[in-house]
Amino acid sequence: MASTAPATSRIDSLRGGIPCSWRAEHMPAHLRSTEGGVTNRRGQSLSGDEDTVARTPIILMGFSLGTLVSLHAALSHTHAVQALVLAAPAVSAEWTLALRVMTWVIKPLALLAPTARVVPGVNHEWICRDPAFMASYDGDPLNVTGNVTARMGEQLLNAMDAVEQNREVEQPDSAFCATPILFMMGSSDKVTSVPLAQAFYARIASRDKEFKLFDGPFHSVFDDPDKDAVFDHLLAWLHARFP
C-alpha cells in the first residue's frame, strides 16, 4: 500500500518496522473483486496480490470504532486471523442517563429517519494532543466531526451488545482465545472508556493477551506526540510472535 495523505502517517510509520517476509503490500478485504489497484478518496493507491496473501500471516488491527469491526470479524471466523490488535477500543459505552433515554427512541428514529444526525459524535478536543494532526483530521473529507446518523447510532449499540453477549471470549479453548491479542490505549483517552475496555479485556480467556496503557496520550495513540513509544511497543509485540 502506498499512501500520500497526512492522515495515513500511522501506516507509513508502521511499515518501516515490518520485515518484508511477512508484510503484505495489499488490502485484500477491500480489493476482493479488483484486479490491479484502485485509488480511494484520500488519493491512496491500493494494490492487491493474491500470492502474497497466501504467504502472509493475517494480523487484524482496528482503531477506535474499527476495533468493534475487528472483533466481529475475528469472532465470525470467516478468515483465519493470527493476531488481533485493538487500539483505543470502542467495545462498550458508558450508560449515562442521556444514552439510556436515547435507546428508547433510537430504533424508531433509525427506521423513520435513518440519516438524521441526532446522535452526539466524538468529543473533538480529546482526539489527539498534536495540533498538526488535528488540522489534518479536520480537513479529511472521510472524517465525521459532528453528530452521527440515527442508523449509525443504532448499529453501533447493536454491535457493542453483540460483542458483550458473545461468550466465546470467555472460553479458553475457543478459536478466538487461541489468537494473540494486544490492547493499546492512552491514559487520557476520554473518547473511549479505559475502565470499560479493561473490563472487557478481563473477560477474555486468551492464553496470550496484553493490555498496554500509555501514560498521557488522548484517543488517537498512533498520532500522539509520543507515538514512537506506541509503535515501538506494537512492533516488539509483533516481532516476538512473528520473528
What's the helix and strand layout?
Elements: H1 9-15, E1 37-39, E2 45-47, H2 50-55, E3 59-63, H3 65-76, E4 83-87, H4 97-112, E5 117-119, H5 131-139, E6 148-149, H6 150-165, E7 181-186, H7 194-203, E8 209-214, H8 227-241
Parallel strand pairs: 3-4, 4-7, 7-8
Antiparallel strand pairs: 1-2, 5-6
Briefly characterize the structure.
This protein has eight helices and eight strands, in the order H-E-E-H-E-H-E-H-E-H-E-H-E-H-E-H.
Note the total helix count: 8
- CATH architecture name of the largest domain: 3-Layer(aba) Sandwich
Number of β-strand runs? 8
- CATH third-tier fold name of the largest domain: Rossmann fold
Question: What would the principal axes of the Cα set say about the shape?
Answer: globular
Secondary-structure content class: alpha/beta
Main β-sheet, spatial strand arrangement: 3-4-7-8
CATH class of the largest domain: Alpha Beta
| Range of helix content | 25-40%
Describe the sheet with the most strands.
Answer: 4 strands, parallel
Q: What is the mean pLDDT?
A: 82
The CATH homologous superfamily name of the largest domain equals Alpha/Beta hydrolase fold, catalytic domain
The total domain count is: 2
Radius of gyration: 18 Å
- Tell me the β content: 5-15%
What sequence of helices (H) and strands (E) makes up the elements?
A: HEEHEHEHEHEHEHEH
Poorly predicted regions = 1-7, 21-35
- Terminus-to-terminus distance: 22 Å
